[in-house]
Structure formats: C-alpha cells, structure tokens
Amino acid sequence: MKIMIIGATGMAGSAITKLALERGHDVIAIGRSEEKLANLPVNAHLETRAKDAFSLTLPELQTVDVVVDAMATGPDKAYLHVDLATKLVSQLRERQQPRLVFILGAGSLTTGDDAHLFVHDIESDPANAAFVAIPQNQLAELNFLRTVTNVDWVGISPAANFTPGPATAIQYGHDTLLTDANGDSTTNSGTMAVAVLDEVEQPQHHQERFTVANQ
C-alpha cells in the first residue's frame, strides 16, 4: 500500500512513518523542513518531499491509497487544521481514493457525568490560554468533517495526554475520553501509530471518528 503522511517529521507523523515502513508500505513523507525529513529512517520504500501541504495537487494525492494528515501547528496558526482538512476534502469530493485519515485532538471527546466536551475543561483553566486554540480548532475540524459524506475519511483522537512513547496495549472508544485503570488518560505516539496502521490496513471506520488510549 502507498501512504502519504503529512507532518511526517512531527511526534505522531514520525511514529506513523516508521511503523508504516516496518510493515512494508511505500511512504511519501511530507514536511516543511528538509533537515528534519533527512532524520527519518533510511529506507528504499521512503520518499521525502519538503513542501507545504497546502501546495499538494490532486494528481499528487491520487498517486497514493491513503493520506494521513498528522500536521501539527502552533496555537497562532491553529486554524490551519481546519483549512487543510477543507483543502484535502475539496480536492477529493466524490472520489473513493485516496482515503483520508485525520489525527484529531482530545478536546472534541466527551467526559464527565454530563458528557460535556473535554475542550471546555481545557478552556476553564487559565493556564491553558496559550495553547487552547489548538483543541478548539481541532474540534472545528471534526465538526466540518462530520458534514462530509462523499469522501472516504476517518478521524482518530488521542486521550487527554498525547506524548512520545512506545506502543502499548490499546483501548478503543468512539466519542468518550478514555482512561486506564488508574484514571490516567494518555496515548503514546507509538500507540497512535499502531491504531492508524491497523485502520489503514483493515478499515473498520468510515466517515466517523474514533479514539484510542494506552490501556
């Protein structure tokens, strides 16, 4: 299978890239920095392209089976999550290939007895003001995707804490924030990579979001 990974040098993207290569897939890694792309594993099945994801054309997208959007942004550019999702979807309307996989945020998950959005907990703490725009815009991204019925997309949200680390046993959920037996809500980058590749190889979700966490 041929997979394009946008944001391939970031925490999630690099873990997904590494695992995709280990599983024998052909990977096109998209990133803005040639220097960071050069740090990805040397592999005959890896092609790197230093370019802005917004410059990707329909012919480029159609050369692959799956596009994974793992782009990360700073809070001041958090709106780019929505903009990139909109651009990718607009180019692929009424097309079945490639499939789009979006790494979303935890803010759009529900939590508590009243099933409120986790983003509201983030917003309520003044200490989070510097980065709250990211989960807010990732929620907007999911809300947009939920209106899309003529593109094959899937979204995957991590738990409250999305951190570098190896894969663990995985908990799966739909729209509720997951925690382990100790009440910890964490998804390692390796755990996310396994969930993404498993979904890519054996699709279980279409035009919906699911969530994964360390077990």
TrEMBL record:
Superkingdom of this entry's organism? Bacteria
- Start and end of every NAD(P)-binding domain? 7-175
InterPro entries associated with the record: NAD(P)-bd_dom, Polyketide_Oxido-like
Q: Name one Pfam family in it.
A: NAD_binding_10
Picking any one GO molecular function of the record gives:
oxidoreductase activity, acting on the CH-NH group of donors, NAD or NADP as acceptor
Q: Which PANTHER family match?
A: FLAVIN REDUCTASE (NADPH)
Q: Mind telling me what this protein is named?
A: NAD(P)H-binding protein
